[in-house]
Amino acid sequence: MTGYCQQTCRSYTSPSDTIRTQYSNVDQREVENLSKQSTEWWDPHGPIRGLHAMNALRVPLIRDGLIATGAVEKDRIQKPNVLESLNILEVGCGGGILTEALARLHSTVVGIDPSEQLIGVATEHAKDNASLRKANIQYHVETIEQHAAKNAERYDAVVASEVMEHVNDKVAFIEQCLGALKPGGSMFITTISKTTPSWLGAIVAAEQIFHLVPEGTHDWDKFISPLDVQRILSSYNCNTILVHGMFYQFWSNQWCWTKNTDINYALHAVKMKET
After folding, report:
1. Which of 75, 120, 174, 184 has the largest CB neighbor count within 10 A?
2. Closest C-alpha among 177, 175, 29 to residue 92
3. What is the pLDDT of residues 49-99, one digit of tens each?
C-alpha cells in the first residue's frame, strides 16, 4: 500500500499544473495575480468592484446582441427567461460575476478558467445563490484549448470579457473560441485597446495612482486595438457587427457607453455560416 501511495502521489497533477505545462497561451503569472483576489471577488465594493459594475453594460450587450441576431425566440424577448434554451460559454470567467448574471436570464452557461481558486469561489457562490437554477450553470478548471477540443461548435455564444488583455497569443485564443461556437453564433469581447490613453488610464491611473485594481493586473504589451481584433475575426470568417467604447466613471463606480474606443471597448461578431 505504501508503494502504491507513493507512486500515485508522484504521478498526480492538478488541473492547473496540466494547464501550465501544456498550454503556453496561459500566463501563470497572470493567473496567480488574479487568483490573489479570490477571497474578495464577490465584494461589490472591493478590488473587483469595476467588474461588478460592468455587468450593467455587458449583460445587455450580450442579451440584445443575441436578440438582434435572431437567436432569441420572439415570444421571449420581453420576458425574464429571455435567453432560455441558449448555450453560452464564458472564457476566463474568474469567480463567476458575469456567468451568474447570464444564468439568471435562464441561459445554460459554462464558465471556464485556468485558476482553481477562482473556479472554487465561483462554484461555492453559485451553490449559495437561491436565485439560480443549478442546471443553468457549470464551472470547469480548463483553458479554451482544452474545452474547445471536446465541445466543437456547441455554443450559441462565446464570451471573453476582460480576458484578451491577459492572453499571450490573441490569434490562437480567438481561433479556439470560434471553434467552440456554432456557425451563426455570436462572439462577445470586452477588452482594452493598445493606445497611449489606455496606458495612462488602465495602468498609470487605475493601478498606480487611484489603486482601482491591484498593481500588476495589466500589461500594456498585451492590449489590442479593436481594428486588430476585427482583422483576426475576419480571417476566421466572422463579421464584426458592433464596436462600442466603454468609459469607467471610477468616482461613482459606473460604466457608460461612448464612441471613444481608445481605452475600453466591447465588440460583437458573428461566425458566418458556410455557403
Report:
1. 174
2. 177
3. 999 999 999 999 999 999 999 999 999 999 999 999 999 999 999 999 999
Q: What is the pLDDT of residues 211-270, one digit of tens each?
A: 888 888 899 999 999 999 999 999 999 999 999 999 999 999 999 999 999 999 999 999
Residue 236 amino acid letter: Y
Known binding positions for Mg(2+): 162, 165-166
Spell out the domains of the chain, with CATH numbers in brackets: 28-33+44-271 (3.40.50.150)
The C-alpha cell at 42 is 464577490
Binding residues for S-adenosyl-L-methionine: 58, 92, 113, 161
At 184, the pLDDT band (50, 70, 90 cuts) reads: very high
Grid cell at residue 98: 458575469
257 DSSP β-pair partners: 246
pTM, two decimals, is 0.89
Which residue ranges make up the annotated binding site?
58, 92, 113, 161-162, 165-166
* pLDDT classification of 16: cutoffs 50, 70, 90: very low
